[in-house]
Sequence to fold (377 residues):
Amino acid sequence: MKIGITCYPTYGGSGVVATELGIELAANGHQVHFITYSQPFRLTGREKGVFYHEVPVSNYPLFEYPPYDLALATRMSEVAEYYELDLLHVHYAIPHSVSALLARQMLAARGRHLPFVTTLHGTDITLVGLDRSYLPITRFGIEESDGVTSISQYLKDKTLEEFHIQNHIEVIPNFVNCDVYKPRKDREAARAIYASPGEKILIHLSNFRPVKRVTDVVKIFAGVVERVPSRLLLVGDGPDRSSAEYLAHNLGIQDHISFLGKQESVNELLPLADLMLMPSKLESFGLAALEAMACKVPTIATNVGGVPELIDDGVTGRLFPVGATDAMAQAAIELLTDEEKLQAMANAGRASAQARYCSSQIIPLYERYYERVLNKG
Ligand code: GMT
Fold:
């Protein structure tokens, strides 16, 4: 198949899933065309079968708000025509599904059918889509899609409940390449870069948006480091980074925390940790926790959204109410001081990732779904 993929190419779970999906599809022999405003950050540009088409946005002074959606629709229709795409797959409903709808209409006027699939990731529905000003157009984009997928059952239910749409939504969970996200053989030596011998490593990976509650990460770690010699690696960057740094200084634990900023090869960092912290206010899936699980790193997370579908409390990680930082710190201490329990959880996490979420199992679900959409049209 020749597939066009559009996503937010910057730091964020939906962009990561879209990019990894494109890479895996290309590895399976499909031709994949990314149509985005900048090159997705996990793409090297050298993958066989993967092509990148930038969406140029005019900054003519008259436009206080450059019309990105229109530029995207134009580029989608051009790429579809020049490269004879079979379908478009857009990740994140706003505004991508509406741009795809326009592209479909533009091509239909010239006698070509270009179906599009929309994948819902979370914030497009739970936060952005529920802003009244975006709701009608988001609902329209979803209703007009030739296929709709959701990354968790939770998000499917939420979409049907909040948007009252009639479309069938196919749940295709996020995935991880278990050959790339795996424990490191040189783990002990590599840990020495970040921690002294005998110190445990906790890690957090996100875009530091308020929904991630990064200050809760610092509070949990403050409870842990009081009792267990340890270090916290904070991977990523975003609006709440300075509040996290401020809190770390206020609590006097800044020397135990490394702010690593945005990192490209998180598959090399995650396996160095003993525990991942993900105390988010909401996660429709929690991709970072899945990547950690595949690397044998259990996650202490909140019991929200789609997280309980991913993490089996007490078996592959631990789940707590939002804001329960003391309880999360206590759970972390219990695991970090009981090697046998920690290892059992780490092994169970990797086994679950391999059994349920490996790309080798999930990519064929997308391929079959594309075929169904193409056969419909
Ligand atoms: O969580 C974010 O801030 C980014 C957002 C996105 O769309 O890029 O993440 C959502 O999609 C990820 C990939 O499917 C999921 O793993 C995240 O749970 C989801 N975030 C939320 O629901 C808050």
Observations:
- The pocket of GMT is lined by residues 12-15, 17, 92, 121-123, 151, 174, 207, 209, 211, 282-287, 305 (CB under 6 Å).
- The mean pLDDT is 95.
- The domain at 187-356 is CATH 3.40.50.2000 (Rossmann fold).
